[in-house]
Write a structure and sequence with these properties.
The complex is a heterodimer.
Chain A: H1 8-16, H2 19-41, H3 46-62, H4 64-77, E1 81-85, H5 88-101, E2 106-109, H6 113-117, H7 120-126, E3 130-133, H8 136-144, H9 160-169, H10 180-197, E4 200-203, E5 207-209, E6 214-219, H11 223-229, E7 233-239, E8 243-244, H12 250-261, E9 269-274, E10 284-290, H13 294-298, H14 314-318, H15 322-325, H16 336-347, H17 364-368, H18 375-390, H19 393-406, H20 409-422, E11 427-428, E12 431-432, H21 440-444, H22 456-464
Parallel strand pairs in A: 1-10, 2-3, 2-4, 4-7, 5-8, 7-10
Antiparallel strand pairs in A: 5-6, 6-9, 11-12
Chain B: H1 2-16, H2 37-50, E1 54-58, H3 63-74, E2 78-81, E3 95-98, H4 104-108, E4 112-115, E5 119-121, E6 126-129, E7 146-152, E8 156-157, H5 160-174, E9 178-181, E10 186-187, E11 195-196, E12 203-209
Parallel strand pairs in B: 1-12, 2-3, 2-4, 4-7, 5-8, 7-12
Antiparallel strand pairs in B: 5-6, 6-9, 10-11
The chains are: A alpha/beta, B alpha/beta.
C-alpha cells in the first residue's frame, strides 16, 4: 500500500485553502451526522449491538487462522476457488490472470477500498485490461483521474456543474442539464451496456462468513448487484479481517453498518452469495484473501483493533479535523480517524509518522464507532511509536530533563521560580502569545498561560505557617 | 499459491499465538420481536413507504387485480415472471413472459417483473429474496426497470435477527443466494441530493397481501 507522499500538516494546509471543499465537507459531514443520530437513537439496544459487534470482531482476530481455513473450505465446497495473496502484487496477479483466461479486455467493478488499496486498476491497465468503476461517484472520479475524499461519498468534493461538464466531455456528449437526476440517468445509460456485455466482474466484500463461505456486499445503487450477478465470472478481493464466524453474526452487522454509514435503517441492496448457484449468477467464482500488512497490524495488541473496522465512515463525519480538511489531506485510501490509525500500521509508522497526530483526541470517533474501536487510545499508542522511532534527540533530551526536574520537590520549586522570572519579557496581557524557537511551534496555533508568579506551596507557607 | 497460504497462516499464528480460545459474545440485543401481527404489518407498510417505494395493501385474492392496476398506471405491458409463480397472482390483462433462461438483454427489453418474496423485515422495511420458486434467479429482479413484489403478511417478521435466523438454513443447506431489498435503488453521490433509481429497478411496487 502506498504511504502518504507528504506529512499531514503540509497537505492539510493546502486543502484548507480550498473554500469550496470546506463548504462541501461541512455540509456533507453535518447532514450525515444528523441523520445518523436520528436512526441510531431509534434503536434502544444500540449499545448492546455495538458490544456484540466488538466481541465478534475480537474473536475473529484472535482465531483468524482457524476462521480463514474454515472459510476456504466452505467456499471450495460451494464450487468457488480461493487464492491467498501476501501483498498487493500477488492479489493483482490473480485478478489479471482470471481476466486474461477469459479474454476480457474490460471488467466491471463494484466500489471497493480494498482494490484501491492494492491499486488493482493500474495493474489491470498494465495488462491491457480496462477496469470500469460502476459506483456513481467512483465513475466520476475515474473519468476525471481524481481520487476519493470520503469513504461513503467519494466525490463529495465535486459540484453538479463540474460533473455535468465532465460527463459532456466523456460519457454523455451534449448533456446540458446538471440536475442530479439527469446525471444519474446518463451514468445508467452508459453503464447498462457495460453490465449487459461484461464477462468478468470484480468486487470487494463487506463480510465473509467462515461457517458457510458466504460473501456479503452492501450497496445502494444496484451496481453491486449487476457486477456480482450478470458477468459469468466473478472475482472478489477480500481483506483477511473481513470474516465473521457464523451466518447468524450478520444479524449484528447488518444493523450496525447501514445506520452508521448512510444513516439509513437499511441500505437499498445487500447481496449474499454462497459459492456458485446453479443457473443463477456467475458460474465461476474466485475469492482472493489479502494480507498486505494486516498480519503486521495483528502483531500489535493495542493497534490490532483497527482491524475491527467495517468501513462505515461514521468516524469521518464526527471528526473536527476530517470535516475541515477532507480526505485528501490524509494521503491514503483510508482517510479520517480510522485512516490515521490504519494507514501507519499498514505501511509502517516511519512512513506515515504524522498521521497519528492528525487528531485533537476529542474522542467523538470512539463514541460513534459501531464496533467500539478505541481510536484515541490507538492514536496515543502510535504517537508513542512515532516519537521513539523518529528519535528526535532534542525532544528526548528535553523530556529527560523535565522528568529529572519533576522528580524532586525542591528542583520543581526552583524551576517554577526561575520560570516565573524568565517568562516576564514574554507575557503580554496575561498571556504568552509567542515563544522563542525552538518552542515557537507550540505558540504558533495557541496561546500559553504563564507560570504563576507564586506557587500554591509558597502561598500556603506564607499564609498558614 | 500454497506458499502464500502457509506464509499468511504462519504470520497469524506468530502474531496472536496458535489455538486461541474463543472470545465470548454477549448477545443482549433484541432477538425476538414484541409487536402483535397487525402492528407488525402496519410497521412494515410504513417503513417501506418511507423508502419511496409504492406500497399497497391487498386481499389475498385480489393480487392479480392489483398487479393489473399497477401495470396500467405505470404503463407496463410485458412482465417477466418466474415459471412457478402462482396462477392466482397472474393478471390476464398483462402479457407475462416466463423466465426460462432469458438473456440479460431480453430481460432489459421487458417493462418489469412480478415476483413473490421469502420474508420481509418490518423494522427496516426490507424485502428478502432467496431465489425461491416464486422469486426466480437474481437477474430477474434486477435488470427490468419495474419490480412488483408480493409480500404475504404472514411472512413479515419484526426484527433483522428474526430474518437472519430463518435464512441461516436456506444458506447453509441449499446455498441459496440472498438479496435484501430496501426500497428502490438510490444514490446520494451528487451533493448528497438523493436520486431514486440508478441501476436496479427504479420503481418498486410492494403488494402486501393478507
Amino acid at each position: 500500500m502506498k504511504a502518504p507522499s507528504e506529512p499531514f500538516p503540509v497537505a492539510a494546509r493546502r486543502e484548507l485553502a480550498n473554500a469550496q471543499l470546506r463548504a462541501n465537507m461541512r455540509n456533507a459531514t453535518e447532514t450525515i451526522r444528523t441523520k445518523r443520530n436520528r436512526v441510531v437513537a431509534e434503536l434502544d439496544d444500540w449499545e448492546e449491538l455495538r458490544e456484540a459487534g466488538r466481541a465478534i470482531k475480537a474473536d475473529v482476530l484472535a482465531r483468524l487462522d482457524h476462521y480463514l481455513v474454515q472459510f476456504e473450505a466452505a467456499v471450495q465446497a460451494g464450487g468457488g476457488q480461493v487464492h491467498w495473496a501476501r501483498d498487493a502484487a500477488e492479489a493483482n496477479a490473480v485478478v489479471v490472470e482470471v481476466a486474461r483466461a477469459h479474454g476480457a479486455t474490460e471488467v466491471v467493478k463494484v466500489k471497493s477500498i480494498t482494490t484501491d488499496e492494492i491499486e488493482l486498476n493500474g495493474a489491470l491497465a498494465g495488462a491491457g485490461i480496462h477496469a470500469i468503476e460502476t459506483d456513481f461517484a467512483e465513475l466520476i472520479l475515474q473519468l476525471d483521474g481524481d481520487w476519493s475524499s470520503h469513504i461513503l461519498v467519494p466525490a463529495i468534493h465535486r459540484n453538479r456543474t463540474e460533473i455535468r461538464d465532465l460527463f459532456a466531455r466523456t460519457i454523455a456528449p451534449g448533456i446540458v442539464s446538471d440536475d442530479p437526476r439527469d446525471l444519474a440517468e446518463a451514468a445508467r445509460v452508459y453503464l447498462r451496456e457495460k453490465f449487459l456485455g461484461a464477462r468478468v466482474g470484480v468486487s470487494g466484500a463487506n463480510f465473509g462468513v467462515a461457517e458457510t463461505g458466504t460473501i456479503c456486499v452492501v450497496e445502494s445503487e444496484g451496481n453491486g448487484r449487476m457486477c456480482t450477478t450478470l458477468p459469468p465470472v466473478l472475482v472478489t478481493v477480500m481483506g483477511i479481517e473481513k470474516l465473521v464466524p457464523t451466518f447468524g453474526d450478520l444479524e449484528v452487522f447488518l444493523q450496525l453498518l447501514p445506520r452508521s454509514s448512510t444513516a439509513e435503517r437499511m441500505n437499498p441492496y445487500t447481496s449474499l452469495w454462497t459459492g456458485v448457484a446453479d443457473g443463477d449468477g456467475p458460474q465461476e467464482l474466485h475469492v482472493v484473501l489479502l494480507d498486505n500488512g494486516r498480519t503486521r497490524v495483528l502483531r500489535d495488541d493495542v493497534g490490532r483493533q483497527a482491524l475491527h473496522c467495517i468501513r462505515c465512515s461514521a468516524c469521518l463525519n464526527v471528526c473536527p479535523v476530517y470535516s475541515r480538511t477532507g480526505g485528501h489531506a490524509y494521503g491514503s485510501v483510508y482517510p479520517g480517524p480510522i485512516g490515521a490509525i490504519l494507514t501507519p500500521q499498514l505501511v509502517g509508522i516511519e512512513r506515515a509518522a504524522s498521521l497519528p497526530f492528525a487528531s485533537s483526541l476529542c474522542g467523538a470517533c470512539y463514541e460513534v464507532c459501531p464496533v467500539k474501536i478505541d481510536i484515541p487510545r490507538v492514536l496515543l499508542h502510535l504517537r508513542g511509536q512515532a516519537v521513539s522511532k523518529r528519535g528526535s534527540r532534542w525532544e528526548g533530551a528535553a523530556m529527560r530533563l523535565t522528568s529529572w526536574m519533576f522528580a524532586s520537590g525542591r528542583r520543581f520549586a526552583l524551576a517554577q521560580r526561575i520560570a516565573a522570572r524568565a517568562q516576564r519579557p514574554l507575557v503580554r496581557g496575561g498571556l504568552i502569545r509567542r515563544l522563542p524557537p525552538p518552542l515557537a511551534a507550540w505558540t504558533r496555533t495557541r496561546d500559553l498561560k504563564p507560570v504563576a508568579t507564586e506557587s500554591f506551596r509558597r502561598w500556603w507557607e506564607r499564609e498558614r505557617s | 499459491m500454497s506458499a502464500a497460504r502457509e506464509a499468511i497462516l504462519a504470520r497469524i499464528a506468530a502474531a496472536v499465538g496458535e489455538a486461541q480460545p474463543p472470545v465470548s459474545v454477549a448477545r443482549e440485543y433484541r432477538r425476538a420481536g414484541q409487536l402483535a401481527p397487525a402492528e407488525r404489518v402496519a410497521l412494515f407498510f410504513e417503513r417501506v413507504g418511507e423508502y419511496r417505494a409504492d406500497v399497497r395493501r391487498v386481499a389475498a385474492d385480489e393480487v392479480a387485480g392489483a398487479v393489473a392496476d399497477a401495470c396500467r398506471e405505470l404503463g407496463a405491458r410485458r412482465l417477466a415472471v418466474p415459471v412457478a409463480l402462482p396462477a392466482a397472482w397472474r393478471p390476464t390483462e398483462v402479457e407475462l413472459v416466463e423466465d426460462t433462461g432469458l438473456t440479460p438483454r431480453e430481460l432489459d427489453a421487458l417493462d418489469g417483473v412480478l415476483t413473490g418474496s421469502t420474508l420481509a423485515i418490518a423494522e427496516t422495511g426490507t424485502i428478502v429474496l432467496t431465489a425461491g420458486p416464486w422469486e426466480g434467479r437474481r437477474a430477474l429482479t434486477l435488470v427490468p426497470d419495474l419490480h412488483i413484489c408480493v409480500v404475504e403478511e404472514a411472512r413479515i417478521v419484526e426484527l433483522v435477527p428474526e430474518a437472519i435466523a430463518q435464512l441461516s438454513d436456506l444458506v447453509a443447506h441449499e446455498r441459496r443466494p440472498v438479496t435484501l431489498v430496501s426500497g428502490p435503488s438510490a444514490t446520494s453521490d451528487i451533493e448528497l441530493s438523493r436520486v431514486e433509481g440508478v441501476h436496479g429497478p427504479r420503481t418498486l411496487v410492494v403488494l402486501v397481501a393478507s
